[in-house]
User: Fold these one by one.
Assistant:
Number 1:
Amino acid sequence: MTRAKLDKKPQDVAAMFDGIADRYDLVNDVISLGQDRAWRKAAVRAVDAHSGELVLDLAAGTGTSSEAYVGKGARVIACDFSLGMLRTGVERRGGASTGGVTFVAGDALHLPFADETFDAVTISFGLRNVSDVDQALSELLRVTKAGGRLVICEFSHIPVGFVDKLYSTYLMGALPKIAGAVSGRSESYDYLSESIMAWPDQPELARRLQGAGWSRVAWRNLSMGIVALHRGYK
Ligand SMILES: C[S@@+](CC[C@H](N)C(=O)[O-])C[C@H]1O[C@@H](n2cnc3c(N)ncnc32)[C@H](O)[C@@H]1O
């Protein structure tokens, strides 16, 4: 059994994602009732990549969150530290660097890129899994060009108490069971639920962005706050 705990030890997190890589995208569609596709589209719109720009999609996993940027004419570096997730992405796309997406193995806490490399940086459903969120936000700032932007797409909290309670019941009860039936790895999805419940709410994450040096920080909720998009500029 491989699952991470809330201390998010990097080797546990990477091994957990290695273990669910083959069914990762299918499970997402099932447990979100297909909403994940709409959330990804909203993130792409928020990044607003232009032709010729270089975008970092950090914690890109299988590259599902990366592909949409190519349609905008941007080049994307899909970076992750789970070799299992990267391998699944590379096999699916037919190469490590095809059609504008290049997969790179790297750790969010020590990014393998020079200062001021990217026009835009983004991270979808990844920041919650890193062991040191503030260090990851600083690293993202370091590799972004002056004036460049950051978009974070992450599970968040519903600001209406009783709806949030109902959602928590789904998170802690049905979600791991459904995901377990599809993936055969329910323990990994216990971690998903626990990590969402323990994640900072929207204002607190915004403060963390500001603390890391990001400017003009703002957020907006998707699906009533189940997911939030945070944005900042360098
Ligand atoms: C839930 S998946 C998200 C994948 C993709 N962004 C998506 O939207 O489908 C989280 C990813 O974060 C990656 N991750 C977690 N901590 C990381 C770190 N310190 N450095 C790089 N990747 C990390 C995991 O390996 C995993 O692939």
Note: The chain has a mean pLDDT of 94.
Number 2:
Amino acid sequence: MTTPSPLPGPGAVPGSPAIALHGLWRRFGQKIAVAGIDLVIPAGSFYGLVGPNGAGKTTTLSMATGLLRPDAGTALVHGVDIWAHPVEAKRILGVLPDGVRLFDRLSGAQLVTYAGLLQGLDRATVVSRTGDLLAALGLEEARDTLVVDYSAGMTKKIALACALVHAPRVLVLDEPFEAVDPVSAANIREILHQYVAGGGTVVVSSHVMDLVQRMCDHVAVISDGHVLAAGRVDDVRAGSSLEERFVELVGGRITGEGIAWLRTSSD
Ligand SMILES: Nc1ncnc2c1ncn2[C@@H]1O[C@H](COP(=O)(O)OP(=O)(O)OP(=O)(O)O)[C@@H](O)[C@H]1O
């Protein structure tokens, strides 16, 4: 008797949004980190996710990418439910998580190769793509250095290479520019713009409003686990700068005398 092979899971649904989140909830003890988020990220968009510290961005992205199970709600990647069909959804998704923990006793080249082989690519493709990615990210000289000896910015870049190696359709990046030098950041932006021009979708979380305004075509402002505004960047900022609009939506500017004992002048 032959064992029936498992039915293949669903593939990407033509015409579906890159990511669709419906009623996502997550609490940690008493703290409600994400309070029923609905968000549709159109295919082919460069989407920014902004919000104050502790707003729920990382929690939302973790639930959207299969890293953290929601208490309620669904997350679809090109129409595939990431929690019902994780293997199929993750095939079309590349993720750079926040505070990523890598197998850092591998060299940079070994780590990207490992990520590619895990995704089921053949060795020749992985070797050639690893070379391309290391060159594009300025890591060629460090290809044989152990990742544990990389700087914070180099670690970000090698993690990005791992997220890109299987040429995903959707790329989700939590704070991709943190600790990255300006030249490398410009290179990464260029790679991401080319990726979007080629039909991919990028979702980035960032605290740098100016960067999001220049780089992204869509944005969602999240605060206290809710979406306060979402849509095209020009519609959300409505004639102001994104930073002004952000402060207006989120509030929280602390004005006044500040901390008296930090003043060093005696007059
Ligand atoms: N594992 C956890 N255990 C307990 N509380 C958590 C956990 N992860 C997140 N939280 C809490 O959930 C809330 C949302 O956190 P989250 O990391 O999603 O915010 P964020 O918008 O990404 O913040 P930041 O911009 O500072 O990175 C915060 O109040 C945080 O303390």
Note: The chain has two domains: 12-92+168-250, 100-167.
Number 3:
Amino acid sequence: MAKRNVLITGCSSGIGLALAVKMARDEQKRSKVYATMRDLAKRAALEEAAGGRLGTALEVKQLDVCDEQSIKTCVNSVPDRRIDVLVSNAGKGFIGPIECQTIDEMKTVMDTNFFGLVRLLKEILPDMKKRKSGHIVIINSVMGIQGILFNDVYAASKFAVEGFCESLAIQALKFKLQLSLIEPGPVVTEFERKALEDGMKMDLSAADKEIAEMFTNIYLKNYKRIFQSLRQSAEDVAEHTVKVILAENPPFRYQTDTLYTPMTTLKYADPNGDQPIDIFYKMVFHHDSLQCKS
Ligand SMILES: NC(=O)C1=CN([C@@H]2O[C@H](COP(=O)(O)OP(=O)(O)OC[C@H]3O[C@@H](n4cnc5c(N)ncnc54)[C@H](OP(=O)(O)O)[C@@H]3O)[C@@H](O)[C@H]2O)C=CC1
Ligand SMILES: CC1=C(/C=C/C(C)=C/C=C/C(C)=C/C=O)C(C)(C)CCC1
């Protein structure tokens, strides 16, 4: 069987790096991995982790999901432009009260997390459709299904991906293409460190006192602890993603951590949408009265 070409975005750290290395280390040598990143100055960690697979099963390439020309140049450099599996992983977190975030900052989050995927597909989907083969794998988030306090814009960017993919999956089926959304819960990566660092130095003067205190004393104070205790590792998420990539009939949605299944199930179980909001409200403000409405 011919090797499949796998292009992954955002491989300078975290899930992208772990997945690129895992795919390249496959003992059956089933894949050629194009591990991309926007800033090649950050390639050392990936190259070290790839070890002997570098230059054979894994090649490092530049790709910025916010730059159409960089996507085109990267895709054109792949033999016959043949990408069998596209893993859209590049993304950024963003936490805090919206009063303290600028529209430009919000646009960067949407531009990376949502339009980044759209740009990739505009370049890669037409070839997949012509070949009538291809698998599009998106590292999305449980926050694409259920929003969480102080993640308003990040959750919106991940919800946008869900709506886009639900629509596209119908067309994809017509062309025999597969589309899979990977939905991790918290994962300890640079994502967590960067979001916490930005949150800690956020100017909260535009928010009212109650909201500023809630963000500092409830959200930021518990953030590290919640991420440390309820998290998965990037390697764990990569392991699950490899299974989805190699599956004969890959699922449309795949949650990497069953811990979050009750949260997402509740969302679908209550058509009024009140229960998840009620539970999160109690979780944050009234831990003592945490129970489902009957
Ligand atoms: N960590 C978590 O808790 C969770 C993460 N996710 C999702 O997983 C994905 C990977 O994140 P994770 O590994 O955790 O975090 P990391 O911060 O470790 O990795 C994010 C990667 O995306 C890259 N990136 C950011 N902007 C661009 C861009 N414009 N073009 C190309 N690459 C870019 C970063 O590059 P650079 O180093 O240059 O910034 C980095 O390589 C994201 O989509 C995130 O939303 C989903 C659920 C939970
Ligand atoms: C910190 C914190 C909470 C949980 C945060 C979680 C669970 C974040 C998940 C982030 C993810 C999944 C990011 C990537 O996509 C609660 C429970 C709201 C209570 C207040 C403090």
Note: The first strand starts at residue 4 and ends at 8.
Number 4:
Amino acid sequence: MPAPSEKPPAKLALEDGAVFAGRSIGAPGECDGEVCFNTSMTGYQEILTDPSYRGQIVTMTYPQIGNYGVCPDDMESGGPKLSGFVVREESRVRSNFRSNTSLGDYLREHGVVAIEGIDTRALVRHIRSKGAMRGVLSTTDLDDASLVAKAKASPGLVGRDLVQEVSPTDSQVWSEPLSRWTRLDGSGAEPFEGDGPHVVALDFGMKWNIPRCLVGQGCRVTVVPGKTPADEILAHKPDGVFLSNGPGDPEPVAYATDTIRSLVGQKPIFGICLGHQLLSLALGAKTYKMKFGHRGANQPVQDLSTGKVEITSQNHGFAVDADSLPDSLEVTHLSLNDQTVEGVNCRTAPAFSVQYHPEASAGPHDSHYLFDRFLAMMRQQAPA
Ligand SMILES: NC(=O)CC[C@H](N)C(=O)O
């Protein structure tokens, strides 16, 4: 790894004129996107490859990133999906028998523009007080005025369908189980096609740990593109339909809300994150853009049905508006940080969803029980 003095200069500029100068730790080039921050201490690899970060420049609040390298087992998709990456300091050493490459080499290999050496605390305080902002990260243009102009011209997230950039074009049967490093019982990880309830997963940019968890529950899992219409989904004869996470604003993904609306009541449905927002929209609720969102592995959520608090992994910048819920939807989970909606249940049909990530990766496993709830719902609805 090059010494800090040998790393080329890089700059991050925000649309409001703030500019942060640092050093490049990734590929040469320039990217734009919404600048957000994640408070996880670990999980940078899962964050880099989570397709929900499409269109975003992610800042890690934890000050040193890269310490445990990059491991082939910890991918959440086929490669980085975000726009750019910001850290306080890239670790000079990587120490992990599971890793096969360093963070910097991985970023360069995949063309990710990334910066270190900026005051990430100042950047995060800026975004927290002023709200999420568009930005530009560059190693090729270091002129402040030019960068700020480019940040202002960046399209942002609102009103764009980013799902189509990360959703697959073909269906596949999923057989990869949880890696043995994340299995709660520590057992091996041979490919496995479950013989339990058949789940058709609508992939809007799905994190791979979700189908791994479903297979871990014994489910047979068929992953289909996010644009798959209802009749094609039903032709797979599913016992349940899963709605995945995914990037950007849920409102423009109208083809998915139409599909979901016609599936509600026909099959048990479980949605995570974007899937939760799309289910809520399909049933008549509204979504809105949050000031700076929830991203981290330490977000407290209360399950209102049990009163229990779970610490959750989250990544979202939009949310379901509690005041817009139709009578058919009830709030089941609340954020204890800001009282926003974290889960809903349909009163009239077997369908529920959460705004956070029970598949963890990275993050705590407190919410894994939601996969059990989905399994129980499918078993209950199955014809005798
Ligand atoms: N992880 C997700 O599915 C994110 C959902 C949506 N893109 C948001 O930012 O709110």
Note: The longest helix spans residues 369-381.
